[in-house]
Automatic annotation (TrEMBL):
<dbReference type="GO" id="GO:0005886">
    <property type="term" value="C:plasma membrane"/>
</dbReference>
<comment type="similarity">
    <text>Belongs to the branched chain amino acid transporter family.</text>
</comment>
<dbReference type="GO" id="GO:0015818">
    <property type="term" value="P:isoleucine transport"/>
</dbReference>
<keyword id="KW-0813">Transport</keyword>
<keyword id="KW-1003">Cell membrane</keyword>
<keyword id="KW-0812">Transmembrane</keyword>
<protein>
    <recommendedName>
        <fullName>Branched-chain amino acid transport system carrier protein</fullName>
    </recommendedName>
</protein>
<keyword id="KW-1133">Transmembrane helix</keyword>
<dbReference type="GO" id="GO:0015188">
    <property type="term" value="F:L-isoleucine transmembrane transporter activity"/>
</dbReference>
<feature type="transmembrane region" description="Helical">
    <location>
        <begin position="90"/>
        <end position="108"/>
    </location>
</feature>
<dbReference type="Pfam" id="PF05525">
    <property type="entry name" value="Branch_AA_trans"/>
</dbReference>
<dbReference type="GO" id="GO:0005304">
    <property type="term" value="F:L-valine transmembrane transporter activity"/>
</dbReference>
<keyword id="KW-0472">Membrane</keyword>
<comment type="function">
    <text>Component of the transport system for branched-chain amino acids.</text>
</comment>
<keyword id="KW-0029">Amino-acid transport</keyword>
<feature type="transmembrane region" description="Helical">
    <location>
        <begin position="114"/>
        <end position="135"/>
    </location>
</feature>
<feature type="transmembrane region" description="Helical">
    <location>
        <begin position="9"/>
        <end position="28"/>
    </location>
</feature>
Length: 226
């Protein structure tokens, strides 16, 4: 089963990689024909219309509807099931209605606004997600000790917060407080300007967590030997 799962996973990764490489190529070559667009949706619409005309517009609209609907249905169902499991007093259908209603409201903000306000949240979550994945892979080394997770995550939260501030919409960057905070991060956080300010904090947290884990194990063994 694991071998078949690995094979299907590899095929899925290869397929997605091909699609994204094709999109990168289309975006890069389209600069000869169009100006840099505000988002990828505009670029795809321009490219499809340029090469296929009205038929291209129809094909892109159909594909976008199908792919987005399947993703949206999966997310809505997963969200509602998980929250109903955590809060059983509220029905599954109620969570479905709440999720669909919020999705409808956010969708009408427009793609530019959605990207502008979701990017800071993603920049906050990405470092935490990456460090948790790495910790999950390394967890057999430290016997799944929660202390290692807690220390690493606590230190990673610091640069993740500053990454979130750095990704806020441009009109908020005029704030003196925000400029002061970002200036501090630029000066004292290695690789912050490259978007990897969390890297050194994550490594430091992992090392500190492993040291604390070893000390805790030694203390426990010492108590048992007495």
């Amino acid at each position: 089963v694991s071998i078949e799962t690995a094979k299907s996973g590899f095929l899925g990764i290869a397929g997605v990689a091909i699609i994204y490489l094709a999109l990168i190529w289309l975006g890069a070559t389209s600069l000869h024909q169009f100006k840099l667009a505000a988002n990828g949706g505009i670029t795809l619409a321009q490219i499809s219309h340029h090469y296929l005309g009205t038929a291209g517009d129809a094909i892109l609209a159909t594909l976008a509807t199908i792919t987005c609907m399947t993703s949206a249905m999966g997310l809505v169902i997963a969200f509602s099931q998980d929250f109903h499991r955590r809060f059983p007093k509220i029905s599954y259908r109620t969570f479905l209605r709440i999720n669909c209603g919020l999705s409808f409201l956010f969708a009408n903000l427009g793609l530019d606004q959605i990207i502008a306000w979701s990017t800071p949240i993603l920049m906050f979550l990405y470092p935490l997600a990456i460090t948790l994945i790495i910790l999950g892979l390394l967890s057999p080394i430290f016997k799944h000790d929660r202390l290692v997770y807690q220390i690493t995550t606590a230190l990673t939260l610091i640069p993740a917060f500053f990454d979130m501030l750095n990704a806020l919409p441009a009109n908020l960057h005029d704030s003196q407080l925000l400029q002061t905070l970002l200036g501090f991060a630029q000066q004292y956080f290695p690789f912050f300007s490259l978007g990897f300010g969390w890297l050194t904090f994550g490594i430091a947290g992992l090392i500190l967590g492993l040291i604390c884990h070893v000390l805790k194990v030694r203390k426990r063994l010492g108590l048992l030997s007495e």
